[in-house]
Amino acid sequence: MSEPLKLGWEEWVSLPDLGLPALKAKVDTGAKTSALHASDIEPFGAASRPKVRFLMHPIPSRPELAIACSAPVVDRREVTSSNGEAELRYVIETRMRVDGREWPVELTLSDRGAMQYRMLLGRQAFSENVIVSPNESFCQPRLDYDVYSSSKVREVAPDRALRIAVLSRETMSYSTRRIVEEGEQRGHTVEVIDTLRCYMTLNAMAPDIHYDGKRLPRYDAVIPRIGASITPYGTAIIRQFETIGTWCINGSAGITASRDKLHAHQVLARQKIGMPTTAFAASPKDTGNLMELVGSAPLIVKLLESTQGKGVVLAETKKAAESVITAFRGLSANFLVQQFVKEAAGEDIRCLVMDGKVVASIKRTGAPGDFRSNLHLGGQAAPVRITKTERETAQRAAKAFGLGLAGVDLLRAADGPKVLEVNSSPGLEGVEKASGKDIAGMLYDMIEKRARPVPVRKARRSRKSA
Q1: Which option is the CATH number for 5-155: 1.10.3720.10, 3.60.110.10, 2.40.70.10, 3.30.470.30?
Q2: Distance between CA atoms of 335 and 457, rounded to whole angstroms?
Q3: Record keywords: Metal-binding included (predicted)?
Q4: Each residue of 118-154: pLDDT tens digit?
């Protein structure tokens, strides 16, 4: 057996599973249970596997420094404080490390913001091989709060459980199911929220989002899967999440711009990103000039809010183009006239861009006799190797809209890649099956990386006045 570990009435400890590498704790043999400071305590997860998340302020003199922690709940226990007040507290179990030795301890969560010590160690936290000397302090090596101001805090951050919202009306779609399954497999709590059942409180001091009669909790991330038919309301909900301060994989501005074909092509043009020559006009008197600007037939006539290849027509001749345009105008529909890239031969490339990088690319080929390559219309997909120029074009296009996850559709033209569309809610099924890559897993890699604690910058010293 190793030598007994000697503790004084105050010691430095670390809780590695909570991402707390240095804590000053008070050792109190008169107390039975141990306590850890926690604010914004919030339970989450399934009833069979409850979890709790909270904010921890490890440095008493730095209340602005908060570390987000989460842990499984092992119990809820009534604890009587030193002033005689009883409180029902969540109880978690986590590893405690002192001078290279570690063992599990149970901690009750309570607001100790007014206390000098953020952690209290009671009798139950001590193993048989621990000796407490109440007349001594810091019998074990001292730690330093500087670890919270160092980039090392990212390296030691634990893989904590996250609470993630998926905004989707299609709970049984492949993409939504994969996102939920992958998240739960990693120990996260993933909640699918019907976008149209959300409603908002517009308040300068306390903006909120409600769902089924209750205020939605705080999420670590929101994954929008907004259908084209509900874009205005869906982006309004995302703006509300952004107002609250929740990180959304794709922002409201990027989704709005990408959904409007005219707006999207203006964004691409402003960034000098290659695309088929495109023209737009409101007056029927400009039909002839509109077609001349794009070039000779065949031409593509496309509704501004078309999706999955619907509302996209190939006009083989000038007369056919005029007929289609007349029909669209008769329906009071807004549309674009676009150059047809013949050399693409009914094929396009879908590049999936995540966190600024192309993580997968597939070639989509249209069904026999169809110039559209959308998989929803019977197209086929296969993995493809893209060029450096195509990769850079896809990445620039996603960046132009500020999207963390985007499907960028390219045509291989004689003078270089042309961006057809930037999809802010790309489907995962076609890309995963064709490329063989775990796209949902990559998505969570990005989310987990983003959710890790951020090192706190040291405040600059103010110059003394002369």
Answers
A1: 2.40.70.10
A2: 50
A3: yes
A4: 999 998 888 778 889 989 999 999 998 888 875 555 5
